[in-house]
Design a protein that fits this description.
- By secondary structure, the protein is an alpha/beta fold.
- The chain has 2 domains: about 220 residues, P-loop containing nucleotide triphosphate hydrolases (Rossmann fold, 3-Layer(aba) Sandwich); about 80 residues, Hypothetical Protein Yjia, Chain: A,domain 2, CATH 3.30.1220.10.
- Helix content is about 30%, strand content about 25%.
- The chain has 10 helices and 12 strands.
- The strands form 2 sheets. A 7-stranded parallel beta sheet has the order 3-2-4-1-5-6-7, with helices on both faces. Strands 8-12-9-10-11 form a 5-stranded antiparallel beta sheet, with helices on one face.
- α3 packs across α4.
- It starts with 8 loop residues before the first strand and ends in a 5-residue tail after the last helix.
Amino acid sequence: MTQSQTLPVPFYILCGSLGAGKTTLLMRLLEYWNSQGHKVGVLMNEAGEVSIDGPRAGTIAEQVLNLAGGCICCDTKDDLAWSITQLVQDYQSTVIVLECSGMADPAEVVDAVTDAYVSRIAKLERIFAMLHPVPLPDTGMAELVTRNAIRYADDLILNKRDLYIPGHWEQFRKTITHHNPYGRIWETNHARLDISALLAAPATRTVPTNVSFGKLPPADERHDARAPHHPMVTTVRLPKPLDRKKFMEWTKSLPEGMERAKGFFRFAHEPELQEFQFFPPRTSTIAPVMLLDEPDHVVVLIGRAYDQERCRASLLACLAS
């Protein structure tokens, strides 16, 4: 049975360590989605100028677009939005999956995917982090990328268990859950796991899938830290213009867990479309912008361990009366 396209199409991110087995998991995902009648669009991001894994995925994917020649979080960020649009509009993809280079920062990829334009046609569904027990980098970009892959993941897939002695494996697992106590844990060899279970959104994300270990945060904290669909992203649609004074005060009250916010909207009694950007350390900009196509009036919030409903309600309280 062929699946029909419904917008926005689900978008999955596959990230993690270099050499951890991301492409092997991608092939298993593609086989599953094909069996369900999906037209899968694949985005392959590799650091070199020529894609190595793209042709392999192309043997079973409906369409593969290569984002080679740079890291997707910087050099090819604009290409990502264009490629998603192409997969949805030209190839009628019903599911899109992005395999990130081991050099790509998932935080930047989330930022690109939740763009006001892109989010109308693709919805960030899940982030999978594929990891294997090599020492985590201590400094530099590699350290940032690896830790963000762990921290941002909905599902943490610990691969190549058969290659490591028990004591080393337990320490590796403990380190991963220290950085992300909320994600589901999968322990695998050769990326073999139940794909249907992996794709099924759990009713709660507080219990690891295959094992139980570590001390979990209190239940009230877990509720706010893990939303039903995706932990970091809250989209607040604005049905009418904002009161400028109230909104400026709201930007000063954003919680510590807020890492990024952005959006388009109008202020009451002002004709210009406004673009809003918030980024660490506690910096925000609001400026008029001219666009060819009117975007949805929304503010997208990205962060960890913040009260999503409180932020949503306080933002909506800034609507002009």
